[in-house]
Amino acid sequence: MNKDLLLWDQTIFREEQYFELDFLPENLLHRESQIRSLQFSIGPALRGATPLNAYCRGAPGTGKTSAVLKVFEEVENATQKVLPVYINCQVDSTRYAIFAQIFKKLFGYPPPSSGISFKKLFSQIAKHLVEKKRVLIVALDDINYLMMSKEIDDVLYSLLRMHEVQPGAKVGVISILSDMTLDMAKDLSPQVQSVFLPEEIVFPQYSVDEIRDILKYRIKYGFFPNVVSDEVLEKVTQYTCEAGDLRVGINMLKRAGLNAERRASRNVSVEDVEKAYEGSRYVHLNYVVRSLKKEEKMILKCIVDSGKQELMSGELYDCFKEKTNLGYTSFYEMVNRLETLKLVTLSSTGKGTRGQSRIISLPYDPKEIERRIDL
Ligand SMILES: Nc1ncnc2c1ncn2[C@@H]1O[C@H](COP(=O)(O)OP(=O)(O)O)[C@@H](O)[C@H]1O
Ligand SMILES: [Mg+2]
């Protein structure tokens, strides 16, 4: 029998969970300084004092969520006196929903399903924190979802001024934003700005070498030895850089492994990776399209509806203006944002005045984009 073939009940995966997107690895490579900054902000809480607020920003897939969860895990293992609560603002996007999560974490059960007023919910939380001398730290992940619903001021205000209603309450907020072009401070009222004052922690894009390192680590723990060659790793790294999101690479490893198993092979081939990329590249698209504002989706829709893969910026603006009544400056900002999210590619015609003469093209099949924008 050919020993390179896999029997039906054999697998090349040592630990498949290393390729799940919500898997939190033991080591976050190349994020030492960001983790140290987070620890520094939280530090006072460990000594029973009010922590500093923090503001983590960086493109999708730069390890923000993972870094915060890592530090929260450490805090929970170290002490009961600090209560870290992680909120996914896409899921819990109202002040009430967020405080209900805090309540649940604090008491171990959700607030009564018959419903209690926000005021009551708030005061029960605040009282408990003071009585038990616990410091609350709330991470608001993907806080742009609160910016869309305009809940952001109320949420931050209630958290950061808790001590005014309940003297002795100590609260810190870590906000997380996957967008380098949005300025969160601009969206806050002056009253909230004056109490928030966060330490900014920047998560830069990973370099090619860093991406290779991170993927190598997953391969080492996720697959059995010698399943993935250096050549294959190189291919995955290259595609991950192209997509600009580590999620794509991690998902690609899983799919490529499954492709190899389907061929009953003990090794992942370059073709397995290529086939995997066709599916995995949409992991990024799925993830970022959800975070777009309505007007940004309109821009994509204009390109899709034109039936062309690319449009001149002037042509695109005409379509956009008709749908939204917004001016060129807003349009221009949104196009730039779409570019940083790798949803459009910009190039210059070399003619005309700057900005007006750019070509805006879609790096994805327009049908795939259309399927994901609900307008
Ligand atoms: N430094 C790192 N080391 C190992 N895995 C990482 C690292 N940074 C990100 N990842 C992985 O990449 C994926 C995206 O990371 P995540 O923390 O969710 O990014 P973000 O919140 O910035 O979008 C996750 O599966 C995560 O485990
Ligand atoms: Mg995240």
Automatic annotation (TrEMBL):
Residues 300-373 form the Cdc6 C-terminal domain. One of its GO terms (molecular function) is ATP binding. ATP binds at residues 62-66, 206, 218. The keyword Nucleotide-binding applies. Involved in regulation of DNA replication. PANTHER family: CELL DIVISION CONTROL PROTEIN 6 HOMOLOG (PTHR10763:SF26), CELL DIVISION CONTROL PROTEIN 6-RELATED (PTHR10763). This is ORC1-type DNA replication protein.
